């Protein structure tokens, strides 16, 4: 069979991107729309959903927005049923919704730790469990889990986040293993350091006008010598959501400017 660039097209596909009201999720949703997908997203509040719907409209995208907390299994099951009735069953799930709490581990409460794991790991499990039966019935589907560099590396103050994202890497591999036989591909995208609201505190200008020390650290550790932009994730997302990746399964695609490959500039 000759390869065709049509393999990257998503026309007729319904894509659900969780938490896609700004940042990485919003850009991934726009990229999937560019490839032809119908975009569905959720967030925690009606206000954030309504604001995002306007942003999608301004981008020429007729998106479908719903209020749903991805950690609430009953609410997620209702959401998937509602989407199936109102839009269609889901062909592509992007588990994007996520939180981080930057607290030294011995100062972190178990409640805080559990909340991060609940959103960043348990919720992708709940979401995938809710969409896989329909994917099996349809003859296949795509699940993309937004992992992290912290799926591979640790750093101070992000113990819960790294544990969750490390677990999400292995959940990705396990879904791939268990459901690959149904033509479901489950892969991860591991963004490096991306300029979004989540990392804004790490890039704030200091009182003296200097760049944040962490900002300087990351730029120095990244071969591309810059922070990533959410738009850098568009192409990888289209690839993993499309037929072009039908034989890619259980893979974490790091989109990190090379930081994971680099020991760091010699002094
Ligand atoms: P962000 O701007 O904070 O966006 C995360 C989104 O998830 C927000 O819209 C948030 O809603 C939503 N959300 C949080 N908890 C939720 C819940 N329980 N139910 C439904 N929605 C929920 O973060 P981002 O930087 O775009 O990151 C998106 C994903 O990429 C996350 O999984 C993050 O861990 C991952 N990631 C980010 C980077 C980076 O450098 N930025 C790098 C690697 C991986 P509200 O804003 O309304 O709270
Ligand atoms: C942090 C950052 C990172 C990024 C991302 C890196 O505090 O170290 O928030 O965790 O969000 O996950 O890939």
Briefly characterize the structure:
The chain is of the alpha/beta class. It contains seven helices and seven strands, in the order βαβαβαβαβαβααβ.
| Order of strands in the sheet with most strands | 3-2-1-4-5-6-7
Q: pLDDT under 50 segments (min length 5)?
A: none
- Major sheet details: 7 strands, parallel
Give the CATH class of the largest domain: Alpha Beta
Q: Total strand count, please?
A: 7
What is the approximate shape?
A: globular
CATH architecture of the largest domain: 3-Layer(aba) Sandwich
- Helix and strand content put the structural class at alpha/beta
Q: Hey, roughly how much beta strand do the residues contain?
A: 5-15%
Named once each, the bound ligands are: NADP nicotinamide-adenine-dinucleotide phosphate, D-gluconic acid
SSE order, one letter for each helix or strand = EHEHEHEHEHEHHE
Number of helices: 7
Give me the oligomer status.
single chain
Binned, the helix content reads: 25-40%
């Amino acid at each position: 069979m000759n390869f065709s660039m049509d393999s990257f097209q998503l026309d007729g596909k319904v894509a659900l991107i969780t938490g896609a009201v700004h940042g990485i999720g919003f850009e991934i949703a726009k990229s999937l729309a560019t490839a032809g997908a119908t975009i569905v997203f959720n967030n925690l509040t009606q206000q954030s959903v309504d604001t995002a719907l306007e942003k999608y409209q301004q981008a020429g995208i007729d998106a479908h927005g719903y209020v749903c907390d991805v950690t609430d299994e009953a609410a997620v099951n209702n959401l998937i049923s509602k989407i199936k009735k109102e839009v269609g069953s889901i062909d592509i799930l992007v588990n994007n919704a996520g939180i981080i709490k930057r607290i030294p581990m011995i100062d972190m409460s178990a409640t805080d730790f559990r909340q991060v794991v609940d959103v960043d790991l348990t919720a992708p499990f709940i979401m995938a469990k809710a969409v896989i039966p329909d994917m099996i019935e349809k003859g296949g589907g795509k699940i993309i889990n937004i992992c992290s560099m912290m799926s591979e590396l640790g750093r101070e103050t992000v113990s819960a986040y790294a544990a969750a994202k490390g677990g999400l890497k292995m959940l990705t591999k396990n879904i791939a293993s268990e459901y690959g036989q149904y033509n479901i591909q489950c892969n991860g995208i591991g963004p490096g350091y991306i300029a979004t609201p989540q990392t804004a505190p790490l890039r704030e200008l200091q009182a003296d006008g200097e760049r944040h020390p962490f900002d300087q650290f990351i730029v120095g550790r990244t071969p591309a010598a810059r922070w990533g932009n959410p738009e850098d994730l568009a192409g990888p997302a289209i690839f993993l959501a499309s037929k072009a990746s039908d034989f890619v399964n259980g893979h974490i695609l790091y989109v990190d400017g090379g930081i994971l490959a680099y020991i760091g500039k010699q002094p």
